[in-house]
Design brief:
12 helices
Length: about 240
């Protein structure tokens, strides 16, 4: 399993174009949405903290979900058939792919947090920085599982379209682009059950010095279980068609 992870990491590092875009896109959106949130009346420090977390989360989610394209390409090339000949169980293969996908979340998270500190003078204690970044990284696990399921189940082109639809739709609905306070009451209530809102809310709780929501953590764990089952099912079904 470790050998498989290392092989895939070396392949990812060769795709410099993808890594560069995964950093630049959330950085540009951080600057745009931070100015927008200030323009609609948020206090500048609050806007900087809110947008830093939300755009870090958006960049991380888009990175791990876009990994579905690589999974779909591997299946089309017959790599999945080769994996099924190894002693690795479907669960361990899926877990390895989840970890590999989660590594794609680190560049956008770190770059946006650095931008927050340099551009908007975001100041947090070291434990708060470590907690916010750590939760932003660990919280990508449900989305990584969803991306893997999409990649194993769909063709390359369809997987790409599905991933874009999922991460943009969930980001908008989950309050990563516009705060829930601007939503209609019924939509804000619905948004609280999305994995995107509960994921970002873990780090919002850190930077705004409030306790984490245990109910929110439970919702996120539920999404992780659901997407994990989906990924294993997709792997097994994709293997039969590979």
């Amino acid at each position: 399993m470790l050998g498989y992870v290392l092989i895939e990491c070396k392949r990812l590092l060769r795709d410099t174009g993808f890594l560069l875009m995964s950093v630049l896109t959330p950085l540009v959106m951080y600057v745009v949405f931070n100015n927008l949130n200030v323009a609609i009346g948020q206090e500048p420090r609050q806007a900087a903290l809110y947008t830093m977390v939300s755009m870090s989360a958006f960049g991380a989610i888009s990175g791990v979900l876009n990994s579905s394209v690589g999974v779909a390409e591997d299946r089309a090339l017959g790599w999945l058939r080769q994996l099924r000949l190894t002693p690795l169980s479907p669960l361990r293969i899926v877990l390895a792919r989840v970890l590999i996908s989660m590594l794609l979340a680190l560049p956008p998270i770190v770059s946006v947090c650095i931008a927050g500190a340099l551009i908007n003078d975001v100041q947090l204690s070291l434990p708060s920085w470590l907690a916010a970044v750590g939760l932003l990284w660990l919280g990508t696990a449900p989305f990584a599982a969803a991306g893997i399921g999409i990649g194993y189940l769909l063709s390359v082109r369809t997987a790409q379209l599905a991933s874009v639809f999922v991460y943009i739709g969930l980001s908008m609905l989950g309050g990563l682009w516009i705060p829930l306070a601007a939503f209609p009451d019924w939509l804000a209530e619905l948004a609280r059950f999305t994995p995107t809102f509960r994921y970002a809310d873990l780090s919002w709780a850190v930077v705004f010095d409030r306790g984490p929501s245990m109910g929110g953590i439970g919702v996120l764990i539920g999404w992780l279980a659901l997407f994990g089952v989906f990924a294993i099912y997709a792997y097994q079904r994709g293997g039969r068609r590979a």
